[in-house]
From TrEMBL:
Family: Belongs to the germin family.
Keywords: Apoplast, Disulfide bond, Glycoprotein, Manganese, Metal-binding, Secreted, Signal
Gene3D superfamilies reported in the protein's UniProt record: Jelly Rolls
Taxonomic lineage: Eukaryota, Viridiplantae, Streptophyta, Embryophyta, Tracheophyta
Disulfide bonds: 22-37
Compartments where found: Secreted, Extracellular space, Apoplast
Annotated SUPFAM superfamilies: RmlC-like cupins
Naturally occurring in which organism (per UniProt): Hibiscus trionum
Name of the protein in question: Germin-like protein
Length: 207
């Protein structure tokens, strides 16, 4: 009996791992679990390669920062593996606005420059640190966090996420890049109406 149970369990575990990968079929609809698998005979080595990090991103924008994300939507080999990665380029003064990844924990690795980074816990405790080249920081899933280049030259970092599609939610854009009425924002944030209108104008929102 014991041998029969052992054999059954080993069969179940080996069967669950029978599929080595599930390269996403980007032409198919994306569901909650990701894309359906491309036919094995159609999979090539290029499905497991992403070359989008070779060049720096364009930091000529309001926040002087560029994020190049390799997620399952453009890197089909990541589909179903629960991981993704991004390249983050900072110009001098570059700022990663306060944001969260609802679907993933993030690990940041500083490659070049000096970056100040931090996050806020659910009890409103702030964890903040100035990071140098080679330093690594983790941002737990769902917590608000930020990044800023505090050095005198450009900075570069790479971040990995515990999801093939981590999602992102920017607090400033959620408040000021929409048509939520100014009086409602004033009541719910205690901000001055003139400041709200200024930020709406800056980020593309309307009154």
């Amino acid at each position: 009996m014991f041998l029969q149970i052992l054999f059954t369990l080993s069969f179940l575990f080996s069967s669950s791992n029978a599929l080595d990968f599930c390269v996403g079929d980007l032409n198919a609809p994306q569901g909650p679990a990701g894309y359906s698998c491309k036919k094995t005979e159609e999979v090539t080595v290029n499905d497991f390669i992403f070359s989008g990090f070779r060049a720096a991103g364009n930091t000529s924008n309001l926040v002087k920062l560029a994020i190049t994300l390799a997620s399952s939507t453009i890197f089909p080999g990541l589909n179903g593996l629960g991981i993704s990665v991004s390249r983050i380029d900072f110009d001098v003064g570059g700022l990663g606005l306060m944001h969260t990844h609802p679907e993933a924990t993030e690990i940041l690795v500083v490659i070049q420059g000096t970056i100040c980074a931090g996050f806020i816990s659910s009890t409103n405790k702030v964890y903040i640190k100035t990071l140098e080249e080679g330093d690594v920081m983790v941002f737990p899933q769902g917590l608000m966090h930020f990044l800023t280049n505090v050095g005198e030259s450009q900075a570069l970092a790479f971040a990995s996420y515990s999801s093939a599609s981590p999602g992102v939610y920017f607090m400033d854009y959620a408040w000021f890049a929409n048509d939520l009425p100014t009086d409602m924002l004033q009541e719910t944030t205690f901000l001055d109406p003139d400041q709200i209108k200024k930020l709406k104008g800056l980020l593309g929102g309307t009154d």
